[in-house]
Amino acid sequence: MKGISHHARARRQPGRDWARGLTLLAAVTPAVAQLVLLAAMAAERRWMFVLMIVPGLAGCLASLLAMIARGRAAPPPEHRQAADPGHRTADDFAALPELSMTAVLGLDEDPLMWRTIAFRWLSEPSTRVPVGTCPGGIATLDIVAQGPHALVAGTTGSGKSVLLQNWCLALAARNPPQRLHFVLLDFKGGSAFNPLRGLPHTVGAVDDLDTAHALRAIIALERELKRRERLAAQANAASIATMQEPLPLLVIVIDEFHALRQQLPDAIERLTHIASLGRSLGMHVIACTQHPMGQVHADMKSNMALNLCLRVRDGLQSTELIGNPAAASISPALPGALYCYDGEDVTPIRCCAPVQGTALVDAVTLAGRFLGASAEPLFTPPLPTRITTENYAGDGRQIPFAVADDGVRFHDVTPLPATGGIAIIGGKGRGKSTALRMLAELWRRRPRTLVTVSLRHGETYASASLAPPIPHPPSADSPHGRTAMHTAWLVDDADALFDPFCGDPLAERMNLTARRNNTTVVVALEQAQHLRRPEWFRTRLIFPTGDRATDLMSGIPSELLNRFGHEELTTPGRGVLLEPGRATILQCVLPETTFTKPAFFHGETS
Known about the structure:
- By secondary structure, the protein is α/β, with parallel strands linked by helices.
- 35% of the residues lie in helices and 20% in strands.
- It has 3 domains: 13-74; 93-371, Rossmann fold, CATH 3.40.50; 387-473 and 482-600, P-loop containing nucleotide triphosphate hydrolases (Rossmann fold, 3-Layer(aba) Sandwich).
- It contains 18 helices and 21 strands.
- Strands 11, 12, 13, 14, 15, 16, 17, 18, 19, 20 and 21 form an 11-stranded mixed β-sheet that branches.
- Strand 15 and strand 16 (460-466) form a beta hairpin.
């Protein structure tokens, strides 16, 4: 550390003498006032007041004498500054070499970095990784041993993003995806974590360009916290580290934490909860901000034992993190220079140079492919506005009827024909007819399923049986001697059939068919109040109308309606699937273009 020059001390000496004189004057003035008052009271022979003034005068004189004694015993300013970390000046960071990340990882001369990384993954994992250089050689950070959480502060251009990138890459190069996961929250446009999104360790990455996606990440982290609590309780383990099959560590990296606070203020309390319980559950938070004072909640900061302070604008910000104002003196010409305070020591560190190219990222990715190691996403983006059968072409998955969203992740929905009824309710143009036809197309491909569709033409209905694309193989006979087949009957524009005065024979047929075993009746209606037999149709797909009262009466829970904005209320195929005890938002899959042609019917029309 650089010492303070003789000339600098000489320039600051008059200021110190002036401040000392003011302090002495502040201590002498009360004593003089008390002495004048004492003399006045004695001159007027008011002895009772004299006795009351004497103790106060004695106290002022004692304080003055104590201050003078401390001033004489105090060491010279230069010695006091050397002993007091609060007066620490900036270290000579320029003397520390700026190495590359591959150099500190021992990979700079390795022509096959991925092979070395894969070999290291087979050894015992470690969270103690190199991030740069320090006066003692290679500087390392350990989020588990020094944490469990870290707070990174620095002004714009100080090198915060580079530090986060290097730290994450070092962790990824040392730990396999089965033992370490990343969730990346970038609130300055998404550029900071672009190189890290493709790592096999990354289970989620969001930015401030899509706050709905960011909110899903927060909800996913809460669910993961509860899941880990449940697993630890079932294993009777105090922490996941003592479990027979330890869960992977989850490192949550947040860039521009203050922006997250502004855009999603409710998320702060959730993250604070995660930070308070994360140590034993293997969840660690690295929060990065420009303003550590006032932007990070005190409850959250109390759990952050590892503080990393790059260049800041004033000494108060520096003192808040490392206990002295030294970080305010870091030169702007040295991005990546920082002080690390782990509760015991303050260490100057020069972070590794920014990663050039994608060689290291590609090596980690290739190592993951070689070992067949990759992490399953913790959450998915919000539902897209359009999903077609072409989206499933070539991936080997069965085409679903719809894609459901539980608020965090997607899952395919393919209802099977079962005894009972399904009601599809929605206005014109919302997609109920398309959903009905998609369901018919999927069911007609199922073995031992007979599908009939009825469409309205004017005042009457036309019905037709759908021929399967491949003839159904003969099935075993039932004990009653009949072939065990399931019947599915789908009726579009069925509002009129529920009118008590409807004279169409199809209405009576529906009353009889809906109560049969091995029969599924699916009806599409415009309004829920037309459904005269709701007990027959306990499963419903409702496309919201946008009128809150109407949608609530249709059965959509208010908490789901609160999540619906203009896009959800106007997107065709976006609805809510109501099942006994469960409500799920979904987006219906659009059939192929040729599916909606008149050739939809194959068979005799009745």
